[in-house]
Predict the structure.
Amino acid sequence: MPIKRAHIFISGRVQGVFFRQWSADHARRLGLAGWVRNRLDGQVEAVFEGPAGSVDKMVELCREGPPHARVDTILDDYSQSVEGLTGFEVKSSV
């Protein structure tokens, strides 16, 4: 199964609604590695790496987000090159 990597930026009402923890929970369930963090510009940034189908599913889940989120846009960058990430973490804001 091919490995895929998605680096996404999510805009809308995505901070203060548990988006990072929701993302980490779903990514772990899908067996993905990567990270998620808040950005000072109000966006949430995430990297998901793993089986192509699971990465695609995670990005689709992020289009909806957790119950209290409002996702306006997602900018994504897909890559076949991977960093060999292990585990999934919530990073500090930048």
